[in-house]
Amino acid sequence: MMVKTQEEIRIIAEGGKLLGAILEDVVSRIREEVTGHELAEFAARRMQEAGGKPAFVGYGTPPYPAALCVSLNNCVVHGIPSDYAFQPGDIISLDIGMIYQGLYTDMARTVSLEPITQRERELIDTASQALDVGISEIRPGNTTGDIGYAIQQYVEGKGFGVVRDLAGHGVGHALHEKPEITNFGTRRSGTKLKTGMVLAVEPMITLGDWHVRIARDGWSVMTADGSKAAHAEDTIVVTDSGYEILTR
């Protein structure tokens, strides 16, 4: 069901608040010589301590192997954590999902290790701002197309690319549910939003061309032209008056 009950929303909100705090803790550990593998192990421990469990482990085909996606530089999303030690100039996108009392939440943030260029800083900021722009379109009667249109106009207005091959989604009973929420499109198109829907909105943007390719590991989504990328995501519930962000 795309529309969740009040009790389900309460649980998702509780899990979302916990997940937001966990990702803040993960981000605070980022520094030179730390590895993605270390961050993923820390994230898994924190989720277990919070009474949840990682949503990503074992997901998909081939089964995803970690509690956290760590996507570096020209990797847009779904990067597999490794023993690579972070270096100055790295752009690091972290995507995390948790199952809490049987229900799912999902979120992502992009950070960096200085020095990065001014344009790279703008890339990261634009992903975060585009998330807020998209979320601001959430209210009963609006559509998923309204969200995508707003994100696309904002991102392309800043001169960045909007990845077309990946999308946001419903979330709750599973990690990925209907409706699909693309980051591009036209107003009044797609699925009409209703009170009680729980959505994961997630702009994925590039410094260059928007086309992507899948790496040999079967998971990492890379920019086709090698340009750097950024990603931001929150879980949001549609309310009678608009929306509530559940992962902040």
From TrEMBL:
<keyword id="KW-0479">Metal-binding</keyword>
<dbReference type="InterPro" id="IPR001714">
    <property type="entry name" value="Pept_M24_MAP"/>
</dbReference>
<dbReference type="GO" id="GO:0005829">
    <property type="term" value="C:cytosol"/>
</dbReference>
<dbReference type="InterPro" id="IPR002467">
    <property type="entry name" value="Pept_M24A_MAP1"/>
</dbReference>
<dbReference type="Pfam" id="PF00557">
    <property type="entry name" value="Peptidase_M24"/>
</dbReference>
<feature type="binding site">
    <location>
        <position position="176"/>
    </location>
    <ligand>
        <name>substrate</name>
    </ligand>
</feature>
<feature type="binding site">
    <location>
        <position position="202"/>
    </location>
    <ligand>
        <name>a divalent metal cation 2</name>
    </ligand>
</feature>
<feature type="binding site">
    <location>
        <position position="169"/>
    </location>
    <ligand>
        <name>a divalent metal cation 2</name>
    </ligand>
</feature>
<feature type="binding site">
    <location>
        <position position="233"/>
    </location>
    <ligand>
        <name>a divalent metal cation 1</name>
    </ligand>
</feature>
<feature type="binding site">
    <location>
        <position position="233"/>
    </location>
    <ligand>
        <name>a divalent metal cation 2</name>
    </ligand>
</feature>
<dbReference type="GO" id="GO:0006508">
    <property type="term" value="P:proteolysis"/>
</dbReference>
<comment type="similarity">
    <text>Belongs to the peptidase M24A family. Methionine aminopeptidase type 1 subfamily.</text>
</comment>
<feature type="binding site">
    <location>
        <position position="106"/>
    </location>
    <ligand>
        <name>a divalent metal cation 2</name>
    </ligand>
</feature>
<keyword id="KW-0378">Hydrolase</keyword>
<feature type="domain" description="Peptidase M24">
    <location>
        <begin position="12"/>
        <end position="240"/>
    </location>
</feature>
<dbReference type="GO" id="GO:0070006">
    <property type="term" value="F:metalloaminopeptidase activity"/>
</dbReference>
<dbReference type="InterPro" id="IPR000994">
    <property type="entry name" value="Pept_M24"/>
</dbReference>
<dbReference type="InterPro" id="IPR036005">
    <property type="entry name" value="Creatinase/aminopeptidase-like"/>
</dbReference>
<feature type="binding site">
    <location>
        <position position="95"/>
    </location>
    <ligand>
        <name>a divalent metal cation 1</name>
    </ligand>
</feature>
<comment type="subunit">
    <text>Monomer.</text>
</comment>
<keyword id="KW-0645">Protease</keyword>
<comment type="function">
    <text>Removes the N-terminal methionine from nascent proteins. The N-terminal methionine is often cleaved when the second residue in the primary sequence is small and uncharged (Met-Ala-, Cys, Gly, Pro, Ser, Thr, or Val). Requires deformylation of the N(alpha)-formylated initiator methionine before it can be hydrolyzed.</text>
</comment>
<dbReference type="GO" id="GO:0046872">
    <property type="term" value="F:metal ion binding"/>
</dbReference>
<dbReference type="GO" id="GO:0004239">
    <property type="term" value="F:initiator methionyl aminopeptidase activity"/>
</dbReference>
<feature type="binding site">
    <location>
        <position position="78"/>
    </location>
    <ligand>
        <name>substrate</name>
    </ligand>
</feature>
<protein>
    <recommendedName>
        <fullName>Methionine aminopeptidase</fullName>
        <ecNumber>3.4.11.18</ecNumber>
    </recommendedName>
</protein>
<feature type="binding site">
    <location>
        <position position="106"/>
    </location>
    <ligand>
        <name>a divalent metal cation 1</name>
    </ligand>
</feature>
<keyword id="KW-0031">Aminopeptidase</keyword>
